[in-house]
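testing teh design pipeline on a random one, pls ignore if ur not involved
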C-alpha cells in the first residue's frame, strides 16, 4: 500500500470490528502471526503493515523517528477510512499505539500495549547517560543475531544466549523477506539502536489524554522494568496492568497462549 512516499507491505484478514496490529522493532508480521491468526479466528478484521526497513517493506534513507512512524500510521488509517479501531502493539508498536491513543483519542477504542516504554530510562539495563555504550550494546544484542553461542552476561543479570533464539529467528525472517537484501540488516539495526537510545520521550502525565480502554502488558523478566510498566498503566485513566510470569521481552513468543487469552478477554470486556 502506498502511504506518502513509501510502499508498505500490508495484510488484511477476517471480518468484523477492525483491529490494527503493530509489530516491534526489527520484527516483521511473522512475529505476531499467532496473535493475528487468533484474532481473525475470534471474529475480528485484522489489519497490519510493515514499517520501512522491516519485513517486506524496503528501507528509507535517514534515521527512524516515532513521530514520522506515527504520521505514517495515521495516514494508513485514513487510507482505510478507519475512524475507530482497536490496537494491539508490541514494543515499538506499543509505543506507537500509546502515541496514537494520546494524539487522536477518539480514534482508538481500546489499546493493548505490550512491552512498550516511555523513554530510555525504562529499560532494565539503562544507565545515566542516554547514549551509554553498555546500553547500546545490550539493545543491539537483544535484536541482532548472536555472534556466538557464548553466554555473555548482560547488565540486567540475564544472558545474551537466552535471547539468542528469537534474535536469530527475526534475523532469518529479515534475510528471507527484506527487499534490501540480508546485508542491509546491519544498517537497519544501527538505526534502530540510535532510535532506542534517543527516543521516545513521552512524559507520563501526557498519557492522561488517553481515553481508550487500555491494557499494559509486559513480562516479569522484560527488558522494560516492571515498575516502568506500572508507571505507564498508572498514568492512563482506568488502565489495566498484566505482568506475565516466566517470560522475557519476547513475551508473545514465550507465553503465546496466555498472551492470546489476555488479549482476547480484554477486548471482549469492552
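output:
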Amino acid at each position: 500500500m502506498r502511504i506518502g512516499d513509501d510502499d508498505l507491505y500490508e495484510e488484511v484478514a477476517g471480518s468484523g470490528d477492525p483491529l490494527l496490529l503493530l509489530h516491534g522493532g526489527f520484527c516483521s508480521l511473522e512475529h505476531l502471526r499467532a496473535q493475528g491468526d487468533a484474532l481473525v479466528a475470534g471474529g475480528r478484521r485484522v489489519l497490519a503493515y510493515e514499517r520501512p526497513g522491516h519485513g517486506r517493506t524496503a528501507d528509507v534513507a535517514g534515521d527512524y523517528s516515532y513521530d514520522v512512524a506515527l504520521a505514517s500510521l495515521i495516514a494508513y488509517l485514513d487510507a482505510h477510512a478507519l475512524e475507530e479501531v482497536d490496537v494491539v502493539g508490541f514494543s515499538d508498536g506499543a509505543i506507537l499505539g500509546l502515541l496514537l491513543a494520546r494524539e487522536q483519542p477518539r480514534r482508538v477504542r481500546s489499546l493493548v500495549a505490550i512491552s512498550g516504554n516511555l523513554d530510555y530510562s525504562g529499560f532494565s539495563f539503562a544507565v545515566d547517560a542516554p547514549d551509554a555504550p553498555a546500553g547500546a550494546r545490550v539493545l543491539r544484542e537483544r535484536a541482532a543475531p548472536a555472534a556466538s553461542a557464548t553466554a555473555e552476561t548482560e547488565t540486567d543479570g540475564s544472558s545474551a544466549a537466552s535471547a539468542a533464539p528469537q534474535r536469530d529467528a527475526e534475523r532469518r525472517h529479515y534475510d528471507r523477506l527484506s527487499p534490501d537484501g540480508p546485508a542491509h540488516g546491519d544498517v537497519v539495526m544501527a538505526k534502530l539502536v540510535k532510535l532506542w537510545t534517543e527516543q521516545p520521550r513521552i512524559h507520563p502525565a501526557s498519557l492522561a489524554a488517553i481515553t481508550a480502554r487500555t491494557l499494559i502488558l509486559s513480562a516479569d523478566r522484560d527488558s522494560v522494568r516492571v515498575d516502568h510498566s506500572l508507571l505507564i498503566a498508572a498514568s492512563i485513566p482506568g488502565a489495566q496492568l498484566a505482568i506475565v510470569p516466566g517470560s522475557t521481552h519476547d513475551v508473545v513468543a514465550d507465553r503465546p497462549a496466555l498472551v492470546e487469552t489476555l488479549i482476547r478477554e480484554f477486548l471482549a470486556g469492552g
